[in-house]
Amino acid sequence: MQASRPCFIIGLMAGTSIDGIDASLVKTDGTMLARTGHALTLPYRDETRRMIFAAMADHKALSANETAMLNTMIADDHASVVETLMEQAGIRPDCIGFHGQTIFHDPENGLSIQMGEAQRLAERLTLPVVHQFRQADLAAGGQGAPIAPVYHRMLIETLNLPLPAVIANIGGITNMTRWDGENLTGFDSGPGNALMDQLARQVLGEECDRNGALAGEGSLDEAWVQTVLDHPYFALEGAKSLDRGGVFDLIGTMPEGADADRMASLTALTAASIARSLKGIKAAVLCGGGARNPVLVAMIRARTDAAVTVIDDHGGNDPDLNGDFIEAELMAFLAERSRRGLPITFPGTTGVDAAMTGGMLTLPK
Questions:
Q1: Domains, the chain, ranges and CATH?
Q2: Which one-letter DSSP state was computed for residue 340?
Q3: Considering only CA atoms, which of 198, 136, 185 is closest in space to residue 156?
Q4: What is the mean pLDDT of residues 248-277?
Q5: N or C: which end of the chain has fewer CB within 10 A?
Q6: How crowded is the C-beta side of 188, counted as CA atoms within 13 Å?
Q7: Alpha-carbon dihedral angle through residues 196, 202, 207, 209, given to the nearest 10 degrees
Q8: What pLDDT score does 243 carry?
Q9: How is 84-136 classified by DSSP, letter by letter?
Q10: With a threshold of 0.90, does the pTM exceed it?
Q11: Per-residue model confidence as pLDDT tens digits over 167-193
Q12: Tens digits of per-residue pLDDT, 149-167?
């Protein structure tokens, strides 16, 4: 690899919402990124998805055979996405950035589990795969999350946002990046879509509350929202991170009332936990699945003085900018930074002592 040459990378992300695998083909040198317009999302196979939820419920309950099977299934589902994208784009990338599927995250004990067998992915695609982006940071005493800030910083600068600015990625969990021109900080602010999605599956038989339709019909319980926000996690300053299970631990008990009222309260909790992290911020850009929920976006705007937009509002200078693929782009960006030995985590983002690179490179045999 020539050090100065940007490379074609396919980034892969399957987030904590478990709603599919995002893939994006970009050209990057780890400091800049050019979109190619080739990106897609495909669902997990039903059996893979079922086993992921089971593993998240209790990863220790998986047998050795079940763990190996799930690692293989996740890798195969990701490989199918890459093969489809390569066929559509007519471009063979230089490398794959593979996040894997987070099953468990416990930074206090230096543990973060991302499943998916990188060797199988590399051999099926006959391409190098960069993966396990969190482990070096965890081993050095960091939280191992969030890993998005270095890419979000580039987005903030590319979008020419007034500083200080924030990028908030609302997936199953909300991760946020602040950049003031000198200091880069990152943290998980609290719930994203995970609580709302679980209720939608229970009462609607749908994967999410599409467009916030159910929440928009309800009346929220502000007292319940404020009680949850009294949890010590929300008052923590600096680097902090959650996994899907941690989000459910934060709330104690779910809100009561009619389904629409419960959904409104869960939506308001996500909005309030994001808004309280926007104090002193001039501009906030929302991305991830939550940015597609107009009721959630309106609730965030109502709780902050920051100028809140969604990422797709900024596509005037780049028609290929699509909020659905920011995290897939992130994985491509981090993969190239890893290959070049550039830092991907920082003291202000994960609490690690010094900026450091990360990721493991797996080559096809």
A1: 7-145+325-362 (3.30.420.40), 149-305 (3.30.420.40)
A2: T
A3: 185
A4: 95
A5: C
A6: 25
A7: -50
A8: 75
A9: HHHHHHT---SEEEEEEEEEEEEGGGTEEEEES-HHHHHHHHTS-EEE--SHH
A10: yes
A11: 999 998 999 999 999 999 999 999 999
A12: 999 999 999 999 999 999 9
